[in-house]
């Protein structure tokens, strides 16, 4: 397997013999085999290990194992402990995503501080296939079906040529010791469900499924290259960047495109517009001039001959916009959003984490922002207005709680202190016909 690794490195021009590598090592079989192969190939490397504190004493034992393993190879070892659950909660993301963000941010910090040339990780061919199905299940464009890149910035994956079985055989042949992550046996994590449930079923249908998938991902990667070449040609014709920082997209060029939604999605993706907003833009192209659309970072305005895209000003950079087409947002808080007709069977939610609002009283886009001095609202169930600062005193909010509080506003009027109290002016009444429901996840 060492010879195959060297050939793969050379054929893909991954790094030179003089480059220094920072290798991410969990202590599991994949990363243990990776450093053994790199050592046998004569590569210069150090080890980096993340303790995510997700499995109690087992996580600490993994760290000790990696330190001792690094010492046995005579390699420098960097270790860092993270409060992964807290980070995931603060950022409204999954544990898996939190661990990924923390891992790669820290790897890059160590790489720059200690002047390593590359970050090397142990993803292999089976990981590639799992990533394909994970992205497929979540919903993705073509780029999400092309798998992980061999080189992505400063991150290199030199084991993508090998299968999990080949890695296991190498560990067995050379009597390598490794740690078994107990969470790999659970199906609570999405990737584990794919590994333990989906892929074995696919192999029942086709015993050569993994080899076929490897070829398919390769074909999709080539297709993706053609796809993005076409997108770049359209950008040259339809997109104009102005000296004031604005971007204009020519409507005349857009109307020549088919399928328009796909092209428009790629044109708007760099500005963080999601697919739902793009579909609304498509519907509005021949409509009212001046209609606005928002992403967390940009505003798009439909003009007579162009769509003008501008970055939200510093004044509004702490604001996030919610359009009536949104089904949810992930930043700055995670909200699921739905609409429904008022019926006799409608039951009002009592949880403060769920806001049921009279949709016909709202003007979109709604604004999600931090509270400000001078803000006031009409707390649900009260007749008079109340300053937010006084309300926070009444509910015994600490300073951190006040600093973390988000406000949903309808123009200048407060609609909901997110997760705390709805404004009485927007409550559901017997006259309400349409309801907007926002759930804080």
Short description:
By secondary structure, this protein is an alpha+beta fold.
What does this structure look like?
- The protein has three domains: 2-220, Rossmann fold, CATH 3.40.50; 242-316, no CATH class; 320-440, Phenylalanyl-trna Synthetase, Chain B, domain 3 (Phenylalanyl-tRNA Synthetase, Chain B, domain 3, 3-Layer(bba) Sandwich).
- It has 14 helices and 22 strands.
- The longest helix is centred in the middle third of the chain and has 30 residues, at 209-238.
- Helix 2 crosses helix 7 (164-173) and helix 6 (125-138) packs across helix 9.
- The chain has a six-stranded mixed sheet with strand order 3-2-1-4-6-5, with helices on both faces. The chain has a five-stranded antiparallel sheet with strand order 7-8-11-10-9.
- The model has no long low-confidence stretch (mean pLDDT 89).
- It has helices spanning 2-11, 29-40, 57-73, 84-91, 95-114, 125-138, 164-173, 190-205, 209-238, 251-254, 260-268, 275-284, 388-394, 399-404, and strands spanning 20-24, 44-51, 77-81, 118-120, 151-152, 155-156, 239-241, 247-250, 292-294, 298-302, 306-311, 320-322, 328-329, 335-341, 354-358, 366-370, 376-377, 386-387, 406-410, 413-417, 421-422, 434-440.
- It is of the alpha+beta class and 441 residues long.
């Amino acid at each position: 397997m060492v010879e195959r690794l060297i050939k793969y490195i050379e054929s893909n021009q991954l790094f030179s013999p003089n480059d220094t590598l920072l290798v991410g090592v969990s202590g599991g079989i994949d990363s243990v085999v990776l450093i053994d192969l790199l050592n046998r190939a004569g590569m210069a490397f150090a080890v980096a290990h993340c303790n995510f504190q997700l499995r109690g004493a087992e996580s600490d034992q993994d760290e000790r194992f990696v330190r001792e393993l690094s010492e046995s190879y005579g390699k420098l070892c960097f270790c860092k402990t993270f409060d992964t659950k807290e980070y995931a909660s603060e950022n409204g993301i999954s544990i898996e995503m939190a661990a990924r963000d923390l891992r790669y941010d820290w790897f890059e910090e160590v790489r720059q501080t200690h002047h390593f040339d590359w970050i090397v990780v142990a993803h292999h061919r089976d990981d590639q296939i799992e990533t394909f199905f994970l992205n497929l299940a979540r919903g993705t464009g073509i780029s999400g079906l092309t798998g992980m890149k061999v080189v992505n910035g400063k991150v290199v994956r030199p084991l993508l040529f090998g299968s999990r079985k080949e890695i296991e055989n190498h560990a067995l042949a050379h009597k390598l010791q490794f740690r078994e992550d107990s969470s790999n046996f659970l199906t609570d994590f999405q990737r584990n469900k794919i590994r333990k449930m989906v892929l074995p079923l696919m192999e029942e249908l086709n015993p050569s499924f993994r080899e076929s998938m490897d070829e398919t991902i390769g074909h999709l990667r080539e297709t993706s290259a053609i796809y993005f070449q076409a997108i770049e040609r359209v950008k040259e014709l339809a997109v104009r960047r102005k000296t004031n920082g604005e971007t204009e997209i020519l409507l005349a060029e857009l109307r020549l495109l088919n399928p328009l939604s796909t092209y428009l999605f790629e044109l708007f993706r760099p500005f963080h517009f999601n697919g739902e907003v793009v579909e609304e833009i498509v519907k509005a192209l021949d409509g009212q001039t001046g209609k606005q659309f928002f992403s967390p970072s940009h505003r798009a305005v439909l003009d007579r001959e162009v769509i003008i895209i501008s970055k939200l000003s510093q004044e509004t950079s702490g604001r996030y916009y919610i359009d009536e087409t949104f089904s949810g947002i992930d930043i700055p808080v995670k909200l699921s959003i739905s609409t429904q007709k008022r019926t006799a069977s409608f039951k009002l939610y009592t949880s403060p984490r769920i806001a049921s609002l009279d949709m016909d009283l709202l003007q979109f886009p709604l604004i999600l922002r931090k509270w400000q001095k001078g803000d006031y609202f009409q707390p649900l169930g009260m007749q008079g207005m109340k300053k937010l600062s006084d309300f926070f005193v009444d509910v015994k909010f600490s300073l951190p709680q006040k600093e973390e509080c988000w406000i949903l506003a309808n123009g200048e009027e407060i609609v909901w202190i997110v997760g705390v109290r709805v404004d009485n002016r927007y409550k559901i009444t017997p006259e309400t016909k349409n309801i907007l429901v926002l759930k804080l996840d």
